[in-house]
Amino acid sequence: METTVENQQDQATASFEKDELVVQIRGLKKAFNGFEVLKNINLDLKRGENLVVLGKSGQGKSVTIKCIVGLLKKDEGSVKVFNEEVADLNDDELKQLRTRIGFLFQNSALYDSMTVRDNLEFPLTRVLKLKDEAEINSRVEEVLEGVGLLDAIDKMPSDLSGGMRKRIGLARTLIMKPEIMLYDEPTTGLDPITSKEISDLILAMQKKYQTSSIIITHDMACAKITADRLVVMNDGEYIAEGNYEELENSDNELVKSFFK
Ligand SMILES: Nc1ncnc2c1ncn2[C@@H]1O[C@H](COP(=O)(O)OP(=O)(O)OP(=O)(O)O)[C@@H](O)[C@H]1O
């Protein structure tokens, strides 16, 4: 194929974006009541990648993602998101930043008294302040189609299974078209088949929206499906990094223990 100036530029942009860091954490420390939970966290999230964070309970995985969105303040170190130091942002800037980041927390609940459609419209009208009915409808339908639940549009959350509610929760986050997704144990409490459906969906959403994601999980099947790269957290630091096969073959006993 002939190489035009235009497609050379496209290629240059594509490779720049691929290596662009959307999150960069250096020397992050965080203590609670004198107990140091994060001792020295260094972490990069590249644009478009799925990064899985493994670690035993209570290691500070959730604390790390809360520092990324400014829900918790760091003690020391640097947490940059889209190249901006989160601690330096004022309230408005922080709000603006959070519209570019989606969270799927373990217990993200839907509003029980609202239909699926109303649950999905809520962030569009309340947060993005959209008014155009046609645009709102098309975004709701597009995202529901994406998670395979267009049929459930007029149902109440109580009429849905746990796995379906999780999908709707994911749809409600994705409808904001976040550039970064933070998944805190997305498959916890689900049976293996539903867990696999959610993991497949996380992967499909990465491809569809080119989202960059941090996925905290203990579920190795989820890690295997979703991860481009994994890091293992222990005692306030990351002790290993690699793709699934590399970590599966690690000599480190702790790293190996996740794969048993
Ligand atoms: N706001 C807070 N105030 C005091 N301590 C906290 C706070 N948030 C977290 N911690 C403590 O920090 C430690 C790490 O918590 P965190 O929730 O990040 O663990 P985790 O690695 O995500 O574990 P899990 O997999 O169990 O969710 C815990 O000991 C927790 O009690």
Automatic annotation (TrEMBL):
<feature type="domain" description="ABC transporter">
    <location>
        <begin position="23"/>
        <end position="260"/>
    </location>
</feature>
<keyword id="KW-0067">ATP-binding</keyword>
<dbReference type="InterPro" id="IPR017871">
    <property type="entry name" value="ABC_transporter-like_CS"/>
</dbReference>
<dbReference type="GO" id="GO:0016887">
    <property type="term" value="F:ATP hydrolysis activity"/>
</dbReference>
<dbReference type="InterPro" id="IPR003439">
    <property type="entry name" value="ABC_transporter-like_ATP-bd"/>
</dbReference>
<keyword id="KW-0547">Nucleotide-binding</keyword>
<dbReference type="InterPro" id="IPR003593">
    <property type="entry name" value="AAA+_ATPase"/>
</dbReference>
<dbReference type="Pfam" id="PF00005">
    <property type="entry name" value="ABC_tran"/>
</dbReference>
<dbReference type="InterPro" id="IPR027417">
    <property type="entry name" value="P-loop_NTPase"/>
</dbReference>
<keyword id="KW-0813">Transport</keyword>
<dbReference type="GO" id="GO:0005524">
    <property type="term" value="F:ATP binding"/>
</dbReference>
<protein>
    <submittedName>
        <fullName>ATP-binding cassette domain-containing protein</fullName>
    </submittedName>
</protein>
